[in-house]
Structure to design on (606 residues):
């Protein structure tokens, strides 16, 4: 038998006095040891205390795991307010149910679509969420196999659900899992629903459940896997335009769900020369054959081994999607020569290429108009805007990080004129069938583009060079500074406050001429004057930079924001130079500038 609760509380207080555990952990541990709603976890916590597992307890309890940009996400651990476990997942579903039940304006009967990816415990957590929703009077539409996040978004819409839950931690390490919560639109929850759901989650006393098998037997859970597969394939296939299908593709699902979405879609649209990179083919939550066991197509290292095979096979394109198949990454040869070097293409560049491709196809089809619009986020390249405007379309870009904002703006502006949505972190969407980024359809678009370019004797890299030569040399970089645990959170707050109170005067040799603070929606001009920003609030700063001898912003900037899904601060670096002296000279100037900016950004984050 573990020690008593009273003894455990005394030992916890003593450990805090010895600086072995944080004040936040002490507060949350007291709740879990004394409140009835957490009673089933008391023995486990007491055993941790008895065995003096202070670091594990501090990691699991120092805070309450929040709803971030992409839902409630974190490391799995059997107990803890700051961990993904049955309690935090269950109360997330219960809080969602409570909020919807509290609203009289939501049509009845109530229903919820639920899907899951290949991560450890994903199926278990999906069943748990289903048992909670059914116990609260919802009918559940269940995708009973590994399926992609965009298929969940599509399922919410096509089944007219009140809400949806996707169990996935996207591209996080194998230790993590999460729930993404979706509204009836098929998009992730937005204000005011998000804060109201969070309040509900924080106040959950009892998690109502019925056994999953019992819910299925009673007809309260409907398995819709085959139905959604067929309907999603039909909806996504509409974005296959006439054109060449002569392209050899190697695809990697990075041990995730992508093979269930990407391969059927490419085949249905006429692309037959597609093979799977076998070391990444098996669904496996450990992501065993991926560098660092992190399946993120943003990381160029995941392509290194695949490029070796692509060269041996004479492939034209490599595609990869993250574990829940909502992000797409790619690599391609630099030139059409058989012995060409290969290179990856970053998220900003992929978005620019696809924006140009989609608008060019719409123009050729006669569906492009002055009402057509593209959406990007504030931290996505301005090259996208320049491309959209060159086609006579407009670009909406005054929104924050997270594809939920793109989906929300799409509905606000009218989805009938929406052409394409793009964000720097490899998220892309076309059309109206879903309200979240879609790695499978992004693969379809990229395969079509590569095939069209091959027919012209060009590669993706050469097409990108053409875009830069036409619209200006826009290049970007990204720095991630890890800040884990309670100390990391304190350092994040300290960094953001310091930048607000005392912004640097220069970054990378360029003068800081203004600071855009999206926390209070002001743009402070260095030297005097303040302007209001018309944007949603967010904990992000953008430092506008000027070239030497000028006081005006130059298209060069640095954005700083704590991640909404991981314990880190992100520095987004933006470089721009006109190409009046040629693209090569402009590239050199921008790359040198970005390198200098990177050095100064790292100093800020240290």
């Amino acid at each position: 038998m573990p020690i008593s609760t009273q003894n455990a509380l005394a030992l916890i207080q003593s450990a805090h006095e010895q600086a072995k555990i944080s004040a936040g952990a002490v507060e949350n541990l007291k709740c879990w040891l004394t409140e009835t709603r957490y009673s089933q976890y008391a023995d486990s916590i007491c055993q941790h205390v008895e065995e003096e597992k202070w670091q594990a307890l501090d990691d699991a309890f120092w805070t309450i795991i929040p709803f971030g940009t992409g839902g409630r996400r974190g490391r799995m651990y059997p107990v803890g307010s700051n961990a993904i476990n049955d309690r935090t997942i269950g109360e997330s579903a219960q809080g969602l149910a409570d909020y919807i039940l509290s609203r009289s304006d939501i049509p009845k009967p109530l229903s919820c679509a639920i899907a899951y990816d290949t991560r450890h415990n994903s199926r278990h957590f999906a069943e748990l969420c289903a048992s909670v929703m059914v116990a609260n009077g919802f009918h559940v539409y269940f995708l009973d196999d590994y399926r992609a996040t965009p298929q969940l978004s599509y399922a919410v819409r096509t089944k007219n659900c009140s809400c949806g839950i996707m169990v996935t931690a996207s591209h996080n390490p194998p230790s993590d899992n999460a729930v993404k919560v979706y509204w009836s639109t098929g998009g992730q929850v937005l204000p005011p629903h998000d804060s109201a759901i969070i309040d509900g989650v924080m106040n959950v006393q009892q998690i109502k459940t019925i056994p999953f098998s019992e819910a299925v037997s009673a007809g309260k859970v409907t398995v819709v896997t085959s139905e959604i597969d067929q309907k999603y394939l039909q909806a996504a296939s509409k974005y296959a335009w006439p054109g060449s299908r002569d392209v050899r593709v190697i695809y990697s699902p990075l041990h995730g769900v992508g093979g269930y979405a990407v391969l059927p879609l490419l085949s249905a649209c006429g692309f037959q020369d597609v093979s799977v990179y076998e070391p990444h083919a098996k669904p496996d939550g450990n992501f065993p054959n991926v560098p660092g066991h992190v399946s993120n197509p943003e990381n160029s290292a995941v392509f290194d081994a695949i490029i070796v095979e692509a060269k041996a096979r004479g492939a034209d394109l490599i595609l990869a999607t993250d574990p829940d198949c909502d992000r797409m990454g790619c690599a391609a040869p630099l030139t059409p020569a058989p012995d060409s070097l290969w290179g990856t293409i970053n998220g900003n560049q992929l978005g620019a290429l696809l924006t140009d491709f989609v608008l060019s196809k719409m123009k050729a089809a006669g569906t492009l108009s002055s009402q057509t619009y593209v959406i990007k986020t504030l931290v996505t390249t301005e090259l996208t805007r320049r491309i959209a405007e060159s086609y006579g379309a407009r670009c909406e870009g005054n929104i924050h990080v997270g594809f939920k904002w793109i989906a929300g703006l799409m509905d606000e502006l009218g989805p009938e004129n929406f052409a394409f949505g793009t964000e720097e972190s490899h998220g892309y969407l076309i059309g109206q069938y879903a309200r979240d980024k879609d790695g499978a359809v992004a693969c379809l678009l990229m395969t079509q583009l590569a095939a069209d370019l091959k027919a012209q004797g060009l590669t993706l890299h050469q097409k990108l060079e053409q875009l830069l030569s036409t619209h200006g040399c826009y290049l970007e970089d990204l720095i991630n500074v890890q800040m884990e645990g309670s100390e990391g959170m304190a350092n994040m707050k300290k960094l953001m406050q310091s930048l607000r109170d005392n912004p640097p005067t220069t970054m990378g040799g360029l003068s800081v001429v203004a600071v855009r603070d999206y926390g209070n929606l002001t743009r402070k001009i260095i030297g005097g004057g303040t302007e209001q920003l018309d944007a949603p609030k967010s904990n992000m700063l953008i430092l506008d930079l000027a070239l030497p001898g000028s006081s005006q912003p130059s298209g060069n900037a640095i954005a700083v924001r704590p991640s909404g899904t991981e314990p880190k601060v992100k520095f987004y670096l933006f470089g721009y130079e006109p190409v009046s002296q040629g693209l090569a000279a402009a590239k050199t100037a921008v790359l040198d500038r970005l390198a200098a900016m990177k050095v100064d950004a790292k100093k800020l984050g240290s």
Notes: The chain is about 40% helix and 20% strand. Residues 583-605 form the longest helix (23 residues). The chain has a mean pLDDT of 95. The two ends are 46 Å apart (CA to CA).
